[in-house]
Amino acid sequence: MENKDIMNYDIVDVSTSAILMKDLICYAKTCSFQGTGSYLAELLSDYAFEEYEKVYTAILNHKVIGFAAIVKESCAENDSNSPWLDFLFVDEKYRNQHVGLAFISKICNYAKSIGFDFLYLCTLSHVDYYKKAGFDVLYTTNYYNGAKFEESMSIMKKPL
How far apart are CA 121 and CA 107, in angstroms? Predict the structure, then answer.
């Protein structure tokens, strides 16, 4: 019996294809991930990712359905840990189908393959989701993106 709920999507490094890069830039500019998608599109357009940093996209039927990145630095003030999971976004139509977990797994495997023992992330509101994915809260802070905010951000860590 065929299960129609199983999606056959691929998680792909966008640097492997100019077409994928262009498609992701267009998608990120207009997605619902507030200013973050636009910021990612800007970074991709400027080829701002360097060394081991990578941006991945989820592709389903030749269509972008999400993205995530591994980066060297975070928005947390004075935190020298590395690497960081960042820009994780899954289109609303494809949530609750483990696409986000597939991104986390892909990035964890990559980070481990290049010699890292931990992966870090910052989140304002998805602590429980990341705990289910194996992350633990290291600390919380109100200082991020160069300013002090009322809302606390959780800095989380996952062993690889």
Answer: 12
Q: What is the DSSP string of 11-22?
A: EEEGGG-HHHHH
| 9-26 tens-digit pLDDT | 999 999 999 999 999 999
Closest CA to 40 of 59, 21, 61, 65: 21
**Full strand arrangement of the beta sheet holding 54-60:** 10-13, 54-60, 63-71, 84-90, 118-123, 147-159, 136-144
pTM over 0.85: yes
Let me know if 155 is exposed, middle or buried by CB neighbors in 10 A (0-12, 13-18, 19+). Answer: buried
* Contact between 86 and 108 (Cβ < 8 Å): no
Q: How far is CA 117 from CA 7, 82, 141, in A?
A: 31, 10, 23
Superfamily of segment(s) 10-115: Gcn5-related N-acetyltransferase (GNAT) (3.40.630.30)
- Encoded amino acid at 45, one letter: S
pLDDT digits (tens, 9 = 90+) for 37-83: 999 999 999 999 999 999 999 999 999 999 999 999 988 877 889 99
